[in-house]
Amino acid sequence: MDLEDYRTVFAAGSLVLVLIAAAPTLGLIVPFSSGGERFSEFWVLGSNHMAEDYPFNVRVDESYNVFVGVGNHMGVSSYYLVYVKFRNQTQTLPNATISEPSPLAPLYEFRAFVKDGGTWEARVTFIFSDVSFNGDSVSVNRVIINDEAFAVGAFSRWDSEHNGFYYQLFFELWLYNVASQSFRFHNRFVGIWLNMTRQLLYVEA
Amino acid sequence: VSGPKFSLVLLMSLVLASQFFIFETFAEASKDVAVLALTGAEGVVVSAYQAVLRAEEAGANVSGLLVRLNEAGGFLARSRIAYDLGDFEEAAGLANSSRNIGVEAENAAVELKDSAFFERMQRMWFMMIGSIFGVVLVSLGSFWVWRVFKRRYYRRVLGMKPEVSSDGS
After folding, report:
1. Distance between CA A82 and CA A76 in Å, rounded?
2. Interface membership of B124 toward A (CB under 8 Å)
3. HEC string of chain B?
4. A167/A137 Cα distance (integer angstroms)
5. Which end of chain A is more exposed for a tag (fewer CB within 10 A), N or C?
6. CA distance A52 to chain B (A)
7. Bridge partners, A131 (sequence order)
8. Kind of pairing, strands A57-59 and A182-197?
């Protein structure tokens, strides 16, 4: 190895050391992308805070609990709106393919500000009252969600294939868009199926 | 129907009708108040959220502010529900609570952003001075090491004795 070769090695080593010394300042000037996909998690859990024991066979005037939650991975603190909606089997669900929310009016809503990497969760207690059974149809006229009563008038026919009067309580996730200064459907929804059953009366023999 | 009797009936009808109109007018007025309160609260909460985003961008820890914003959001959601259920007085009250928390949060966010910006600038200056110092130190150090190395290299080369190869040339 002659002196020129040594000079090259020295120059390269010095340059590396200079770059290391300048790295903190370079970090302030050169924007480094945090990378990764930006998304939000959205979930509904059963009464035991687990993905099990969801209410299914529901009765009039009985109280049921679920937990709805949001996880933020959007890179910044986000402002979410969660709509609680109720439908029968024939009413429209949100369309995730075209990012279209359900046209049904929301019954209840939650607003949550979640830090990037953070989560938010809320308990949803619901009771069905004023339910009328009439042969092969049932009409749920009132739903109480977190102590607020809502008139719904949701009608369902007997589903002979699955043996029940089916309804769905579902949640839509909306995200506040700073650019448009409005909430936009965030293309996420979760829900639970409910089978409305009659109150059984046991008479002692 | 005689004149006085007719007048009495007419008067009573007018009194009854006026009660209805007064009630309707009050209902409309309270609805308008609720709409104003709700719109105002929504604007304040959004403005507070944007101030929090700016503070976050400046490097501030906004966890405490998000807790306050969640309180404001909770009141706002309940206000919206009360409005939809026709309870305008409750809706206006809740919206005002939301608005008050939103104003507090926004002010706190602006302060936090300013202090975070100041801290960030300070940190940036320290880093820049540290970097410049480091670069100069590394450059001078490398130059010195290179000179020492070169001197030793030449000494080693000049100190070498010529060797005679085996074929005698």
Report:
1. 18
2. yes
3. CCHHHHHHHHHHHHHHHHHHHHHHHHHHHHHHHHHHHHHHHHHHHHHHHHHHHHHHHCCCCCHHHHHHHHHHHHHHHHHHHHHHCCCHHHHHHHHHHHHHHHHHHHHHHHHHHHHHHHHHHHHHHHHHHHHHHHHHHHHHHHHHHHHHHHHHHHHHHHCCCCCCCCCCC
4. 12
5. C
6. 28
7. A140
8. parallel
- Mind listing the pLDDT tens digit for each residue in B74-121? 999 999 999 999 999 999 999 999 999 999 999 999 999 999 888 888
Selection from A108, A85, A109, A96 nearest residue A167 by Cα: A85
Fill in the DSSP letter of residue A16: H
Q: What is the ipTM, given to two decimal places? A: 0.83
| B144-147 own/partner pairs: CB under 8 Å, 24+ apart | B145/A10, B146/A7, B146/A10
The residue behind tokens 């309707």 is B24
Are A85 and A102 in contact by the 8 Å Cβ rule? The answer is yes
Decide: A145 and A123 in contact? Cβ < 8 Å: no
Chain B interface includes A8 (CB < 8 A): no
Tell me: the pLDDT tens digits for A56-101?
Answer: 999 999 999 999 999 999 999 999 999 999 999 999 999 988 999 9
Contacts of A13 in chain B (CB under 8 A): 142
Nearest to A113 among B66, B85, B127 (CB): B66
pTM of the entire structure? 0.79
CB B68 within 8 A of CB B45: no
Question: Tokens standing for A109?
Answer: 């809503």
Amino acid at A108: Y
Torsion of CA B155, B156, B157, B161, to 10 degrees: 110
Q: Tokens 């400046």 appear where? A: B58
Q: B14: which 2 tokens?
A: 């007018």
